[in-house]
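I'll show one example:
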Amino acid sequence: MTLAAKTAEAAVPAPSPRPGKDGRGRSRREAGAGIVLTIPVAVFFVVFWLVPFCGAVYLSFTDYEMAGAPSWIGLDNYARMLQDPGVWNSAWITVVYTVFTVLPTILLALLVAVPLSGPGRLNRVLRSLVLVPAVMPLAATSMVWVIIYSDRGLANTLLGAVGIEPQSWLTSSDLAIWALVVMVVWKSLGLFVIILTAGLQALPREVYEAAAIDGAGPVTTFRRITVPLLRRTLLFVLVISVAGSMQAFVPAFLLTGGGPADATQVLPYYIWANAFPYEHMGYASALAMMLLVAMLVVSIVQFGFLRGGDE
């Protein structure tokens, strides 16, 4: 073979191998491994979410007192809700509780996150400290605040220091709901500070440098640059905080037991009261479906606001 022939033969690329049985076998093994890995998640979802959800939907159309078998009554439970004053009272208390825990928490978290988003060892330490209430178990937090709100607790001690009479924080129908609000704001603040701090640190520095060159002050920069750029993060915090407040049960259960005089009987507590102490499981299931629909509607409105702003 001449040198030219050898050169031409070397220049011709070798044909790529066709996928054979080994390649197809490897793909099948990978697909099988993926299915095996998803089985525990699927089983968990079906057993602990789908089956209880379907059971609750069914029970919401029945009269079930836990002493016998459920009896089908159709929409009677849902019609009963419209005439139940306890539902309307609990719905109103839930709205008040949600509004006055969500808005102050987000506002305070944003005001705290702005100075803590800067670099420095001190800010890192402060961010760690502000997260401590958020990682405490809610039951333990509630017990701590029961002590704080006691007759000789920290709250009344601080009031006495400024010459104000001690208050019955958890046994007064006028103060009990606000006592819960203060505790929940304190509990939730740290988590939202960390989320907003991460959002602030991700904002482009060039925009702030341009604003400084144009002579924008801190208030103008915060109002016209920081808040608009942080809008998606703020709406994320809003969605999770509203959903959490609408499902709140532990604070009302442990601090006040829904009282006094049903002043802190939020909807989740009213659902629990109908399901277990009164054993009206069918009616409680209908109430739970109503709460679920309300949460879905609120979430859809919030996400619609986010999508509308992006457009």
Summary: Residues 85-310 form a domain with the MetI-like fold fold (CATH 1.10.3720.10). Residues 3-8 have pLDDT under 50 and may be disordered. DSSP finds 15 helices and two strands in the chain. The radius of gyration is 29 Å.
